[in-house]
Amino acid sequence: MPSIKETPPKEMKEIDVPFSSSDPSHLSDETLFEIMAQSPFFKRKHQEAEEALSKVDWSQISEKS
Amino acid sequence: MNKESYSYRKSGDGNLYSFVSEGTYGNITKSVSIVRILSEFTNLPDQEIYNLAFGDFRIINGQWMIDDSSRSNNGDMPKVIATVAKIAIEFMHENKTAILSFSGFMDKKSFELGRNQRTNLYQRAINSNFEELCKSFEIMGVIKDRIEEYALGTGYDRILIKCKK
Lengths: 65, 165
Hints:
The structure holds two protein chains of two kinds. Chain A is mostly helical.
């Protein structure tokens, strides 16, 4: 009786993109941008910019426009 | 600026961007936020002024955070800066009457040297593309709270750019 040659099952190839704990590539755009929008860091940076820009003498710009 | 840059993801409102720096220490996600500064801070009700902030996206204490407190030294700074510049230029083309403001972060080294090293980086990028940028943009520098026309060789606290009319 001819033996049925068993072929080993194909190895499951997982598409396993390695990402470090700080790699957000698996996050959807929605989640990524939500985290960014809520970021205290960006809030602080923009607040610092507001404070710095409030001290600037804008007369040069207002004269031009 | 035709320097090599990374492709980036952009939020629907066009104010948030993200890209991945691929360098010596692997992939580091960078994020850019551009927010309108309220006119009460500038006393220029008819002028839209935006601020650009930039940081690394990482997990700190189990939470996603953005910060710029460490130098990633990923070996691709020119490409990272070129990407931020590309984002800024795209934003300016979409907001032609706006002024975009940006400055670097005063890290430990900056305090030691008494100069903002990150603003230095931005200025180096501007300086090396100055002629080309001047064709489309008006570039100004803020020094000691005064705005002046950008001059090569001068170190500024903050940079302002605006599309030429």
